[in-house]
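I hope you will forgive my troubling you with a question about protein structure. I set the record out below, with my sincere thanks for your time.
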Amino acid sequence: MDILLAMAPPPGDGAGSSMISTLIMFAAIFAIFYFMIIRPQQKKAKEREKLLSNLKKGDKVVTSSGLHATIAGLDEKTCLLDAGNNIKLKFERSAIANVTASKEEATL
């Protein structure tokens, strides 16, 4: 019984300062997670949304499966891709991974 009493923190102001330091530590951990994980993911999602909304007919794109094609037509959620030799495939806009050349760059 004497061992348990010796290990217990002393009563009084020690518990209040311990609580504050614990809260500060949790706030610091949350701030680190926010700036290192959450914020970059939000920024990347905004850039991807901007890429998909700025697609135009004639842009050269690469799909997530690796298909290199030119956009032949656009719908609200899908796009028609021309893979060459008059082969046209319909893909979801979300399948577009990268725009390699826009229509303006292709004409220059």
